[in-house]
Design brief:
In chain A, 24% of the residues lie in helices and 35% in strands. Chain A is built from nine helices and 20 strands. Chain B has one domain. The chains are: A alpha+beta (416), B mainly alpha (277). Strand 5 of chain A pairs antiparallel with strand 1 of chain B.
Chain lengths: 416, 277
């Protein structure tokens, strides 16, 4: 048996009380609850059971890097908490072979008033390291975190990047057989993330096992070989990381990529223009039901024109869900007779960065007068699936793929 | 059922409770580190630093001496009044400090509890160890004061461990109760300072317990600090204060009860801390 983690039907139940947080917070509440339930003849005050985890059975092999993905509230963190013994399961059993180190948050237990050196010892002890072990690894930790110069400075004067580096360094040097990591690499700069990634890969090469929770699909995809997707506290999918990540992306988008209005009465528009269809889809060559930064996209706009002899053009505005405008582009002007038309606008691959977008469509007459405007014609999400050695998001509104040329520069050539 | 090879741990409902002692042993260094952290942090960015743990008992002692000794002229069992007060101040401040610090210790470390596993018992234990260190410092102050009065402890000092241990168990026992209850019922955050305030007057700190009429002594001993303070005075002040044996027995029994029940209660609710904190 070379499973290091085996769980059998793990479940975790929380009891929710209505219009209240968990449990009575004051004695008065506790007393009044008791009294009320006693008066009602034993009836318990309105409570609802909530299973944060249900029937979780997984097994993880030695040296495996298992990604755990799922939407917020799917139970990912609860699972890590159960496996790291922070909280007890309500049902089921888990069998764990070897020492577990969990990193649910970077820098838990760091005390701002203490110096970097003091915090390394404190944090190490909190994570379960012995003193001699910390002392032995001390130089390595400090070198990894690149904080040699500030060892005797209180951590409260550190930049956030510095304290994150120090905290990760401590956890990464913990001699554990199993490392449970929760979304910790969302912080820190690109260079450091790269370092952490390769550190985590090294860790598994030493025969250690990693369970890695993340919302960042690119990270899961490049770090993990296997993945589990949780949904509503249950296992929705288990398999190779690539496959599970794809399943996650397919199942999850709240975006409305296509709208069609068959009844003209209901369709958005006015006496001049009426929408028939607005759809964003992956143009030829892509079979994935989700869009990545490398997917060529096409926007199809179906509409009915009711204005005779009209010089019409369509203007498309692409908004990021966060409110920034990414671009505004217009078609040429067409001389249109009344009737139904379909127009397609192509958005090339490697233009948009990852994120959520909404499409606004304007119908413009004579290049000056807006006949009709529809703000949320459709929406879509672009995922980052590029494999790379770090987890960070690429910055910027756009993400073009540009040509870089490189040649040897000999001194003579420079002179010319 | 899953079988368990030696290096394996099984996680299931109720399992942590059974493992509490081995976990505690494994995390014994954390106990040291948390105490060390609290001591380091406490006097950072203060001008007087460690002097504070000398100043507080000293000033209270002065006030009580003036109030009870000079103005109220309470009997002092032939002991200089400042000594009488300070000899009680040391155990009292240890107890008061322990329950107020330990009572809030779990909440103060909420983040640790929610994010890291370790035996939760370590936290209130570390806090009471810190107040024990403080008590050690004020004990040195007491010795200094005794020397300035020309007295030194006699053979009775050998009994000191027999007071320190029950005092520690009492402080820890109350600390366990309050810290665990405080997680569930935040009322205790308000109740504890009040208890400390009242306790200072219902315990024989500013006066000798001999002023309590004989028939009330046994009931008075239901406050376990009475037994502790009386014995502490007896040990240091050459037996000039009297010991009331039935009272001591009551105090001792109560201390054992508080400590054991506190430990059992803490162990029972410990596993829910991370969920409700």
């Amino acid at each position: 048996m070379d499973d290091v983690i085996r769980t059998e039907h793990i479940g975790k139940k929380y009891v929710l009380r209505h219009s209240r947080r968990t449990g009575p917070r004051t004695l008065r509440e506790a007393f009044s609850d008791r009294t009320r339930s006693w008066l009602r003849g034993g009836g318990v005050p309105a409570r609802e059971e909530f299973w944060a985890l249900q029937d979780i059975s997984i097994s993880v092999k030695v040296g495996e890097r298992l990604g755990i993905i799922g939407r917020n509230g799917a139970g990912k963190t609860t699972l890590l908490k159960v496996l790291s013994r922070i909280t007890e399961p309500t049902a089921g059993q888990a069998l764990i072979r070897g020492r577990v180190a969990s990193l649910l948050e970077v820098g838990t237990g760091f005390h701002p008033e203490l110096t970097g050196r003091e915090n390394v010892f404190l944090n190490g002890a909190i994570l379960g390291m012995r003193r001699h072990e910390i002392r032995r690894k001390f130089d390595e930790i400090v070198a990894f975190a690149e904080v040699e110069k500030f060892l005797d400075t209180p951590v409260k004067r550190y930049s956030s990047g510095m304290s994150v580096r120090l905290a990760f360094a401590v956890a990464a040097h913990l001699e554990s057989d199993i490392l449970l990591v929760d979304e910790v690499l969302a912080v820190g700069d690109a260079q450091f993330q790269k370092k952490c990634m390769s550190k985590m890969k090294d860790v598994t090469r030493e025969g250690r096992t990693i369970l890695f929770v993340s919302h960042n699909m690119a990270a899961v995809n490049s770090l993990c070989s296997q993945a589990v997707m949780l949904e509503g506290g249950r296992i929705a999918r288990r398999g190779s990381a690539e496959e599970v990540v794809k399943h996650y992306l397919e199942s999850g988008s709240s975006a409305i990529t296509a709208q069609e209005w068959s009844d003209p009465e209901q369709a958005p528009g006015n006496d001049s223009i009426r929408l028939r269809k607005a759809r964003i889809f992956a143009a030829a060559g892509s079979e994935e039901p989700f869009f990545t930064t490398a997917t060529p996209l096409a926007l199809e706009i179906g509409f009915a024109n009711a204005v005779p002899d009209c010089a019409l053009n369509i203007s498309v505005v692409l908004w990021k869900a966060t409110g920034e405008c990414i671009f505004n582009t217009g078609s040429e002007s067409w001389e249109l007779a009344p009737g139904d038309y379909s127009c397609t606008c192509h958005i090339p691959p490697h233009l948009l960065n990852e994120g959520n977008y909404t499409v606004e469509i304007n119908f413009v007459r004579d290049r000056s007068r807006v006949l009709f405007n529809l703000e949320d014609a459709c929406s879509f999400e672009i995922h980052d699936m590029e494999k790379r050695a770090w987890f960070g998001k690429r910055m910027g509104a756009v993400r073009p793929k540009l040509d870089f040329t490189l040649k040897h520069a000999s001194p003579n050539e420079v002179d010319e | 059922m899953l079988k368990s090879p030696p290096d394996t741990q099984i996680i299931e409902a109720g399992r942590s409770r059974a493992r509490i002692w081995s976990d505690l042993w494994r995390y014994r260094e954390l106990l040291f580190f948390l105490s060390w952290r609290d001591i380091l942090v406490r006097y950072k960015q203060t001008v007087l630093g460690i002097l504070w743990s000398v100043l507080r008992p000293l000033l209270t002692m002065l006030i009580f001496t003036v109030l009870f000794g000079r103005l109220a002229r309470l009997p002092s069992d032939n002991v200089p009044y400042p000594l009488l007060v300070l000899a009680a101040m040391v155990p009292w401040q240890f107890f008061a400090g322990s329950i107020s610090e330990a009572g809030n210790s779990l909440i103060g470390n909420a983040n640790l509890i929610a994010k890291v596993f370790f035996p939760r018992l370590v936290i209130p234990m570390a806090t009471t160890l810190v107040t024990l260190v403080d008590a050690g410092i004020s004990f040195l102050l007491l010795l200094g004061l005794m020397i300035s009065y020309g007295t030194l402890p006699d053979w009775r000092i050998l009994f000191l461990p027999f007071v320190v241990l029950p005092a520690y168990l009492l402080a820890l026992g109350c600390g366990l109760w309050f810290s665990a209850l405080n997680i569930r019922y935040r009322d205790f955050r308000h109740l504890i300072p009040f208890l400390v305030q009242v306790g200072l007057y219902v315990s024989p700190v500013g006066y000798a317990s001999t002023i309590i009429p004989g028939k009330w002594r046994l009931i008075y001993a239901l406050n376990p600090m009475v037994g502790i303070i009386d014995s502490f005075r007896w040990i240091l002040l050459h037996g000039r204060t009297q010991l009331y044996m039935p009272g001591l027995a009551v105090s001792a029994a109560l201390i054992a009860l508080i400590f054991i029940s506190g430990l059992l209660y803490f162990r029972r609710v410990e596993r829910t801390f991370a969920d409700i904190i």
